[in-house]
Amino acid sequence: HVQLVESGGGSVQAGGSLTLSCAISEYLINANCWAWFRQAPGKEREGVANINTSEMTSYPDSVKGRFTIAKDNAKRTLYLQMHDLKPEDTGNYYCAATEPYRLCRATDWSTYTNWGQGTQVTVS
């Protein structure tokens, strides 16, 4: 059954903003590490933001200062705010989580085992 559901993608002009949301199931809300990934056509999937239970966040240089990850436990929702979007930000964006209660390091992109279906972002 579906555990993570992304929404909020769309088409935007360069310089614009979008906020992605990821609805989290009751089962996965107890994961300790969370992330957003993206995959552009013909390219490998790459991590763009992560957050842990201490609300520590990190970003690759390509999005630092433009993207912000946040989690609202009361709403069971993970967010990705994206500003000053560039054409190279185009791709399918996925939210991801580790297994519930399992110790993890949010910056370890290989640790994520639960994925949403993705939401498309197109920047022109």
Please write out the topology.
Blueprint: E1 4-7, E2 10-12, E3 18-24, E4 33-39, E5 46-52, E6 57-58, E7 67-72, E8 77-82, E9 91-97, E10 114-115, E11 119-123
Parallel strand pairs: 2-11
Antiparallel strand pairs: 1-3, 3-8, 4-5, 4-9, 5-6, 7-8, 9-10, 9-11
Which regions are unreliable across 5 or more consecutive residues at pLDDT < 50? none
Record field, number of beta strands: 11
Order of helices and strands: EEEEEEEEEEE
Report strand %: over 45%
Query: Structural class, judged by helices and strands?
Result: mainly beta
CA gyration radius, whole angstroms: 13 Å
Mean pLDDT: 96
Task: Give the helix proportion (percent range).
Answer: under 10%
How many angstroms does the end-to-end distance come to?
34 Å
The biggest beta sheet, please?
A: 7 strands, mixed
Shape: globular
What's the tally of helices?
Answer: 0
Commentary on this structure:
0% of the residues lie in helices and 45% in strands. It has 124 residues and is an all-beta fold. Strands 2, 4, 5, 6, 9, 10 and 11 form a seven-stranded mixed sheet that branches. A hairpin with a 4-residue loop joins β5 and β6. The radius of gyration is 13 Å and the shape is globular. The mean pLDDT is 96.
List keywords for this structure.
about 120 residues; mainly beta; seven-stranded mixed sheet; four-stranded antiparallel sheet; 11 strands
Entry summary:
This protein is an all-beta fold and 124 residues long. The protein is built from no helices and eleven strands.
